[in-house]
């Protein structure tokens, strides 16, 4: 997906920062899975425990670098995630595109999984993805306000700048639609202490981006 961005008075089109990012297992991959990857995809806790009893590797990877925990996160298999961590699975492992369970769940707007991953030792401060971002930036980009609040509570860095030159607050404006959830996201970030003065690579602040888009509710939130 490509989105319009106004920078220094120019209308540019840039690639959305999650458009070519997370890749859940395909139908072909799911059909080919065996062992813990299959048990994780199926959400079979009994099978996971049986495999661990036979010394299965909790952090085995498929061709995309996904561990069973990544597969369970994509499939929203909560009990499987807990069982995999109990058996030694690394909740903070990164797959080939550098996504962890928390960021996968944040993009899916899976608040329950985000909270579970944090409970099980997930690091909300981790730098993830090819964009050197965070789960908070990914959630803010998509307007997943509930996830944003959970990540803030877990200590996610409010002003981390990714390799696009954007913070979570900037992404909530630049890649958002100015609607209720993106406004709620911005409000949560500002209330938590996120800087409103950090601009993009051209020095354009979140407020200036909101004003250029005539996002009045967002402008009010940023003022």
> Which sheet architecture does the biggest sheet show?
2 strands, antiparallel
Task: Work out the helicity level.
Answer: 40-55%
Task: Classify the fold: give the CATH topology of the largest domain.
Answer: Serine Threonine Protein Phosphatase 5, Tetratricopeptide repeat
Q: Could you tell me the strand content as a percent range?
A: 5-15%
Shape: elongated
Q: Any idea what the CATH superfamily of the largest domain is called?
A: Ankyrin repeat-containing domain
Stretches where pLDDT falls below 50 for ≥5 residues? 5-20
The second-level CATH architecture of the largest domain is Alpha Horseshoe
Number of domains: 2
Structural class: mainly alpha
Succession of helices and strands:
EEHHHHHHHHHHHHH
Strand order in the largest sheet: 1-2
What's the assembly state of these chains?
A: single chain
- First-to-last CA distance: 30 Å
Q: Mean pLDDT, rounded to whole units?
A: 93
Rg value: 19 Å
CATH class of the largest domain: Mainly Alpha
The DSSP helix count reads: 13
Count of individual beta strands = 2
Features:
single chain, Serine Threonine Protein Phosphatase 5, Tetratricopeptide repeat, two-stranded antiparallel sheet, 13 helices, 2 strands, 48% helix, elongated
């Amino acid at each position: 997906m490509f989105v319009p961005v106004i920078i220094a008075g120019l209308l540019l089109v840039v690639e959305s920062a999650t458009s070519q990012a997370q890749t859940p297992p395909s139908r072909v991959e799911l059909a080919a899975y065996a062992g813990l990857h299959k048990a994780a995809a199926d959400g079979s806790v009994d099978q996971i425990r049986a495999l661990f009893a036979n010394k299965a590797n909790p952090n085995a990877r498929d061709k995309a670098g996904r561990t069973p925990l990544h597969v369970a996160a994509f499939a929203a298999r909560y009990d499987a995630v807990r069982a995999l961590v109990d058996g030694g699975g690394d909740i903070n492992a990164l797959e080939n595109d550098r996504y962890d369970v928390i960021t996968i769940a944040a993009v899916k707007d899976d608040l329950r999984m985000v909270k579970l991953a944090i409970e099980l030792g997930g690091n909300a401060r981790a730098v993830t993805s090819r964009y050197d971002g965070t789960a908070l930036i990914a959630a803010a980009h998509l307007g997943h306000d509930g996830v944003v609040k959970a990540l803030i509570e877990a200590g996610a860095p409010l002003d981390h700048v990714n390799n696009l030159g954007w913070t979570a607050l900037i992404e909530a404006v630049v890649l958002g639609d100015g609607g209720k959830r993106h406004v709620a996201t911005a409000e949560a970030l500002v209330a938590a202490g996120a800087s409103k003065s950090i601009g993009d690579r051209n020095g354009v602040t979140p407020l200036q981006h909101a004003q250029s888009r005539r996002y009045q509710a967002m402008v009010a939130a940023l003022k």
